[in-house]
Structure to design on (233 residues):
């Protein structure tokens, strides 16, 4: 996938900020993501992200690190942090901002062991589809130290769908309703559609249990979003 996201971060970091990112999904209209928000400090973060950072312990792996906001906060608190992202531009920015350990790679290709693994800003998205979740959960087992934890946020998209008079929701018949196609656009260029997953709490817990994890919810937001902690049974 063309690194449109990384180019936008590099532009902002190098004082070439002229416009914002545009995101669009298969069930929503185009929406702007202000680039300054992708460089936010702790006080500007949603409560779910703040809780995740305050709950982190030991050696930390920041998956999908973006511009390095979470890594920098933890690093400044004395944590040993490794930040990875599939966006080459994002990793460059995180490194230039001062994150000590960065790597441009996919999660499934990464090796190492950690006490805390962070997946934030709808961290369940990296799973792509429900079918792919077990593959990622099994890989996490290789990355966690004994007693380690995964802190991942997600969102239940039920509010995006029409409701029946009885309160049920109309959902697609050919896929899980949280499986979306995502497009990112910047300065007239767009990515090809790519899969992105929003998992509801109930299904996430079922999948976690089936793959040898306990799941607990440690924070809930205001719009069907949540922060989950996974630990190996």
């Amino acid at each position: 996938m063309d690194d449109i996201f990384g180019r936008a971060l590099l532009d902002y970091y190098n004082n070439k900020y002229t416009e914002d990112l545009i995101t669009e999904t298969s069930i929503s209209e185009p929406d702007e993501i202000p680039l300054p928000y992708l460089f936010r400090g702790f006080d500007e973060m949603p409560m779910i992200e703040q809780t995740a950072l305050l709950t982190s312990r030991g050696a930390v792996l920041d998956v999908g690190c973006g511009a390095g906001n979470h890594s920098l906060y933890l690093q400044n608190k004395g944590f040993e942090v490794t930040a990875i992202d599939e966006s080459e531009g994002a990793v460059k920015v995180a490194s230039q901002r001062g994150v000590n350990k960065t790597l441009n790679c996919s999660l499934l290709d990464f090796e190492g062991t950690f006490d805390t693994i962070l997946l934030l800003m709808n961290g369940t998205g990296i799973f792509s589809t429900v079918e792919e979740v077990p593959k990622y959960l099994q890989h996490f087992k290789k990355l966690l130290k004994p007693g380690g934890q995964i802190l991942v946020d997600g969102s239940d998209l039920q509010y995006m769908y029409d409701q029946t008079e009885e309160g049920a929701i109309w959902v697609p018949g050919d896929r899980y309703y949280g499986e979306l196609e995502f497009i990112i656009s910047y300065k007239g260029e767009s990515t090809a559609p790519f899969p992105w997953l929003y998992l509801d709490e109930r299904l996430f817990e079922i999948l976690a249990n089936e793959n040898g994890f306990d799941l607990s919810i440690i924070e809930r937001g205001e719009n069907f979003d949540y922060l989950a902690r996974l630990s190996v049974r």
